[in-house]
Design goal:
Blueprint: H1 18-29, E1 46-47, H2 49-52, E2 70-75, H3 84-101, E3 111-113, E4 119-121, E5 143-148, H4 159-176, E6 183-187, E7 199-203, E8 205-207, H5 219-223, H6 225-233, E9 240-246, E10 249-253, E11 257-258, E12 261-279, E13 283-300, E14 313-323, E15 326-327, E16 331-339, E17 346-349, H7 354-365, E18 372-377, H8 383-386, H9 390-395, E19 400-403, H10 410-419, E20 423-427, H11 435-442, E21 447-451, H12 456-467, E22 473-478, H13 484-496, E23 501-504, H14 511-520, E24 524-528, H15 536-542, E25 545-547, H16 552-566, E26 572-577, H17 583-589, E27 596-599, H18 606-614, E28 621-625, H19 633-644
Helix pairs in contact: 4-6, 7-10, 7-17, 12-14, 13-16, 13-17, 18-19
Amino acid sequence: MRNLRLQAVDVQGHSESAVSRLTRVLRGILGGGSQPAAALTDQPAIVSRAQWGADLHIRRADPDYGAVQMAVVHHTDTGNDYTPLQARAVVRGIYVFHVKSNGWNDIGYNFLVDRFGTVYEGRYGGMDLPVIGAHTLGFNSVSTGVSLMGTFSAASPSPAMLSSLEQVLAWRLDVAHVDPLGHATVTSAGSDKYPQGAHATLNDISGHRDMDSTGCPGDIAYALLDQIRHAVAQIGLPKVYRPATVPDTISGTQLGGYATATISAVATAPMHWSLTVTHFALGDVRHLTAPDADGLAAQWDGTDDNGRPVPGGDYSVRIEAAGPAGTARAATVDVAVDNTSELRPATRLAGGDRYGTSAAVSRQVAPDTATSVIVASADNAHLVDSLVAAPLAVAKKGPLLLSAIDSLPGDTSAELDRLHPSDAYIVGGTAAVSDSVAAAITAKGITVHRVAGDDAPSTAAEVAGAIGGPRVGAVVVARERAHLVDGLAASGPAAGLGRPVLLVNHDSVPAATTAALADLHVMDLWAVGGTAAISDVVVTQLHARRVAGDDRWSTAAAVAEAGVAAGVVPDTFVVASGEEAHLVDALSGGSFGKPVLLTGRRAMPKVTWDELYSHRVTIEQAWVVGGTGSIATSPAADVKHAINAL
């Protein structure tokens, strides 16, 4: 039982990967997709981490995810004489031992079962998700680990303990569509029995000693495993096992058609099969059926119900099976559609950090030289100053570069050397960008102008003054940290329209903002964000038009639509992270003066895909701003698929 970070290998047709399942869950949260219905094999009663008193402060890291291809039975090798009142303390003790003595990130097991039949949640991360534990060296990423609380080398597990073990195994393996009587061929990441890279064919319910040199789970418990396998196999019938799609990617074009994928599964009884192919944004695109049988082999050729080839992207296939024996738990497999005719680029702009990313954007905004540059703070505490900088950058026909508070980052310094501007405008006071940074820029022969006020609203007003007036329109956004994301999304369209961004409080308008609006003679004012960000009182007071959606994702899309309607040419779109840790990348992207849409790190919201898809005819270039730490490969690919769909 050692803590390893492993990758799932040799899936052998078992259930969906952790990444795809997590992506599906996230897409559901962000506005797309659906979750499987309840099955006959119900989750047993499980005491949660909160209920048994897991100390949140000692867990060292967030979980990693693999793929459950099998279950491993353990014993804790502790005493057998605990009382019902002591059982939770035993679990807490194991948790503390694993973290503080063994140095693991969390408790090693995924589940524990006490001698009274109580089941406990183990490692954090989601009981129905393939959380990688630290219970079976070399095989953690392909298994779920269930431990019997006690020592079973000579003693026998109680009937209650065995019954609960069987129930939790039946449920967890059914979630993963693993046959309790089957075998898995997996690749070891390295153990005492199987060196790294060795292939091992193991029972889908195995004992710890099958993979490592150990006596776990004890001679008595180990001798019961065959009995346990057969008992688990009879719980919750009928069941569907080994759902798979081969190949997992079909290639072709929307004009010429795609290759064919075969979706397969087996069932414990003859069943009628129904399949639904779903895209997170397009919804259900294809419905298929297969004859009654205890096996499935259906084909999908990448077309929708009307016979038209679908856009490129990731699709899920929900497999439902029902028959005289009942309804099985639905299974889901994934198939990717590779549209090889995608010509409109979706290019990632990223560096090693936020400064490198801003420099990468700068090289596109100003590929040669620039007479002026804008410098703003990348510090999270000062984003409220920085978010107003993009319109100034577009007005000065220069890029927006980011700085640390007290030092000029290497990427920013190098970009200044490349651009060789005559003027640099620092947005924000010395608390945001210090005089030492200004001096470093001056030392390059660049004239520095600081654009700042006494606070964030007055800094925004000073920036508006530097842009100059009169202005047909302006944008007001909330100054509170919780709502800065709306302002960052608005900065691109505002910059493209030559509209300064000003700041308001939730329930009031700062004097500096009122004065700036009067000086600019603004006729068309947008208030970006919902009522949680800017109250109706403020909108009414300013005679503004609210531009908002139900959340940050839809607000960004609404601002993009408003920008296009007002005159922003929709030939270029920017996609940046809408998650708090990476909002600064959206700041960099605003300097294009184009619509800025937001995505999650792992999954793109449906509203973002819809907005890109709706402008696919006019889009010539999309920029994905930020590295894979802020926008993973899947949502970045979704950008390309959306703008290239027919």
